[in-house]
Design a protein that fits this description.
Layout: H1 12-27, E1 40-45, H2 51-62, E2 66-70, H3 83-93, E3 96-100, H4 104-113, E4 118-120, H5 128-141, E5 149-153, H6 158-170, E6 173-177, H7 186-199, E7 203-206, E8 217-220, H8 234-241, H9 248-254, E9 258-261, H10 273-276, H11 284-304
Norvaline binds near residues 157, 222, 225 and 226.
């Protein structure tokens, strides 16, 4: 593995190794506290971040390395200087680049022109650090991931793309339910279908909430992602999405035992406060914690292999 850019560039065994390594680091972080000794990471953030910023910074520190946060104070990526030059400059100093960007193309250019590994910390199409942390979380709850039925209900976005692709690679049955017009691109659907066929799992995409069926876990995310704000009248959007809210009634109907959310949550929109706070069903803060351990596994793998 040279970079960590997109879920569909990973194999089943690579993902399984990363999940095992994340759990190993989580159980005994002191065994890994020199993995990044003397190494520095440049972290580019074009968009806001709480969990990603903090979990990378603290995770890198736990591995003995140094993290530098680069916001937009030096100008927007690609405007003050070309993305390719940004990548070449950072490669002079940093051992690895973490980037949260508006467009996936910027991630590709950083990887192409830099000479150090690049980690995608969210773009418009993927959020592979989140999906890895989510499967670490699921592995902590289910001994055999192939028995899990995972559904994502809400806006088809970067988080659902990464989740459905990783599920398809791992052989986890996946159902995606989005309102009409808010599903993933045809390219993403084709990829998920193809990967699910290869792994022997099922992949269902529907706009009909009645087709959700029995699930082990239901996942949701904000109805409006960063960068898409203001695209549409908020009231019209809330009305369209309301039937797709994840709440206790939906959990009961699907007989789902766990609810997941990548956060930040918009309470009473995509998820009710009562379900978000339900300590018997919500594994949302476990997902947040596992962001750090999953990313430690990715950093370790990229720097050691
Ligand atoms: N889909 C959300 C995820 C935030 C972690 C966004 O892109 O804003």
């Amino acid at each position: 593995m040279n970079h960590y850019l997109a879920d569909d560039q990973l194999t089943k065994s690579q993902i399984e190794s990363l999940i095992s390594l994340a759990i190993e680091i989580k159980n005994a972080p002191h065994n890994f506290n020199q993995v990044m000794a003397g190494k520095s990471v440049a972290m580019i953030f074009e968009k806001p971040s709480l969990r990603t910023h903090v979990s990378f910074d603290m995770g890198i520190n736990k591995l003995g390395g140094h993290a530098l946060y680069l916001g937009q104070q030096n100008g927007k990526l690609g405007e003050r200087e070309r993305v390719s030059d940004y990548a070449k400059n950072l490669s002079c100093y940093a051992d690895l680049i973490v980037a949260r960007v508006f467009e996936h193309q910027s991630i590709k250019e950083l990887a192409e022109h830099g000479s150090v590994p690049v980690i995608n910390a969210l773009c418009d199409v993927y959020h592979p650090c989140q999906s890895l942390a989510d499967f670490v979380t699921l592995a902590e709850h289910f001994d055999d991931l192939s028995t899990v039925k995972l559904a994502y209900v809400g806006d088809g976005n970067n988080v659902s793309n990464s989740l459905m692709l990783m599920a398809a690679i791992l052989g986890v049955d996946f159902t995606l339910v989005c309102p009409e017009g808010y599903g993933p691109s045809q390219t993403m659907l084709n990829k998920a279908e193809q990967l699910a066929e290869q792994s022997g799992s099922t992949f269902i995409f529907t706009t009909d909430m009645n087709k959700l069926g029995k699930q082990s876990v239901i996942y949701t995310d904000t109805w409006v992602s960063m960068g898409n704000e203001g695209d549409e009248d908020k009231n019209a959007l809330l009305e369209k999405f309301h039937p797709y809210q994840v709440n206790h009634a939906l959990m009961d109907k699907a007989q789902a035992s766990l609810v997941m959310h990548c956060q930040p949550a918009h309470l009473e929109e995509e998820i009710t406060t009562a379900l978000f706070d339900d300590e018997n069903k919500s594994v949302i803060f476990q997902q947040a914690e596992n962001r750090m351990w999953a990313q430690c596994a990715v950093l370790t793998s990229l720097l050691i292999d």
